[in-house]
Amino acid sequence: MDEIDRKLLALLQQDATLAYATLGQEVGLSAGATHERVRKLRERGIIRRTTVDVDPAAVGGGVLAFVMVESRSWMGDSAAAFAAIPEVLEAHIIAGQASVLVKVRTASTEALQDVLRRLYAVDGVSGTNATVCLETFFERPVAPSHT
């Protein structure tokens, strides 16, 4: 991945609807060459998908919580069980006192309580510790860095 690819990624993260001609002007390439670069970034799995950034509160997801999930056993094989809970946006195996960290969005604290009940139903889960987010200063996409 070179500097042009990094610039293309940064531009697409800001606005994935930009035309190839516009992207090309920004990085000094023709529309065709830009299209080919973006196609290759997709093929290599660097661009995993194109999506829309939706305001969670506007669609009933105003309560954000991070839940530490404790377990009695290894949780590495339980991804499908966490994914089956629609309010769980992310699930990560972690090191430390808890086994899994999940990011949850619900419409209310009552709905969050229901999600916690469903998390307890996942095989191996022995406890949860939820932290409700009061305000999000910012969220940023992954930067196309030089690493």
Would you kindly provide a brief summary of this structure?
The protein is of the alpha+beta class. It is 34% helix and 21% strand. Helix 2 packs across helix 3 (31-43).
What does this entry look like structurally?
- The chain has 147 residues and is of the alpha+beta class.
- Helix content is 34%, strand content 21%.
- It has helices at residues 3-14, 20-27, 31-43, 79-83, 109-120; strands spanning 63-71, 88-93, 100-106, 125-133.
- Helix 2 crosses helix 3.
- The radius of gyration is 20 Å and the shape is elongated.
Would you spell out the secondary-structure blueprint of this structure?
Blueprint: H1 3-14, H2 20-27, H3 31-43, E1 63-71, H4 79-83, E2 88-93, E3 100-106, H5 109-120, E4 125-133
Antiparallel strand pairs: 1-3, 1-4, 2-3
Helix pairs in contact: 2-3
Structural class, from helix and strand content?
alpha+beta
Query: What is the overall shape?
Result: elongated
Main β sheet profile: 4 strands, antiparallel
| Percentage of residues in strands | 15-25%
Low-confidence stretches: none
β-strand number: 4
H and E order: HHHEHEEHE
How much helicity do the residues have? 25-40%
Radius of gyration: 20 Å
Query: What is the count of helical runs?
Result: 5
Relevant terms:
21% strand; alpha+beta; 34% helix; 147 residues
